[in-house]
From TrEMBL:
GO molecular function annotations of the record: monooxygenase activity
Source organism (scientific name): Actinomadura gamaensis
Lineage top rank: taxon: Bacteria
Key words, A-Z: Monooxygenase, Oxidoreductase, Signal
PANTHER family: CHITIN-BINDING TYPE-4 DOMAIN-CONTAINING PROTEIN (PTHR34823:SF1), GLCNAC-BINDING PROTEIN A (PTHR34823)
The protein, known as: Lytic polysaccharide monooxygenase
SUPFAM superfamilies for this protein: E set domains (SSF81296)
UniProt entry tagged with the keyword Transmembrane: no
Highest classification ranks of the organism: Bacteria, Bacillati, Actinomycetota, Actinomycetes, Streptosporangiales
Length: 199
């Protein structure tokens, strides 16, 4: 007959064995970044922009509270999703971030690469107002707070490479596009800032 310690060991092994499938069945945390137009996080990851801090290894991790613009990251911390680890993304670098050329008032396909997909509420795209200051950290006052493109998912899980086609605003010159991926079953969203040049 097994001793008491032997019984305890067998019991723990059985519990651990039962727990493994439960752990592996848990949903993965969502992560992702925009590839078109390329986000600041992606440019850091690619080494196009230097001295970015740890975001260069984690471009998919700009996760913060959802509910933007009424909630979400504080002004001045939007590009880093309110996470101080990614603060270099909020640094305007005196307006010298590389800017992708985009066609004003024309059709454009936005793309994301997700490293972990998740049930999704929506993807929304905002753009800075005319006359915004690219040498200052991004704030709500610098944005048109009505998204120019909203793609609703109603809780569905998007593919790992996802695209959304819409019409760009008829802007001119340098601007920033803020893409917000809102997760359905957590309290968070992902924030990606892309510097662009219209025309």
């Amino acid at each position: 007959m097994p001793t008491a310690p032997r019984k305890t060991t067998l019991l723990l092994a059985a519990v651990a064995g039962l727990g493994l499938p439960l752990l592996s069945a848990a949903p993965a945390l969502a992560h992702g970044y925009t590839t078109a137009p390329p986000s600041r996080a992606l440019l850091c990851h690619q080494g196009v922009v230097k001295n970015c801090g740890p975001i260069q290894w984690e471009p998919q991790s700009t996760e913060g509270p959802k509910g933007f613009p009424s909630a979400g990251p504080a002004d001045g911390t939007i590009c880093a999703a309110g996470d101080s680890r990614w603060a270099p993304l909020d640094d305007p670098r005196n307006g010298t971030w590389p800017a992708a050329s985009v066609p004003p008032g024309s059709s454009y396909t936005f793309t994301w690469h997700l490293t972990a997909a998740h049930a999704t509420t929506s993807f929304r795209y905002f753009v800075t107002r005319d006359g915004w200051n690219p040498t200052q950290p991004l704030t709500r006052a610098q944005l048109d707070l009505t998204p120019f493109l909203t793609v609703n998912y109603n809780g569905k899980i998007p593919p790992y490479d996802v695209s959304h086609t819409g019409t760009l605003p008829a802007k001119h010159g340098r601007h920033m596009i803020l893409a917000v991926w809102t997760i359905a079953d957590t309290g968070n969203a992902f924030y990606q800032c892309s510097d662009v040049n219209f025309g």
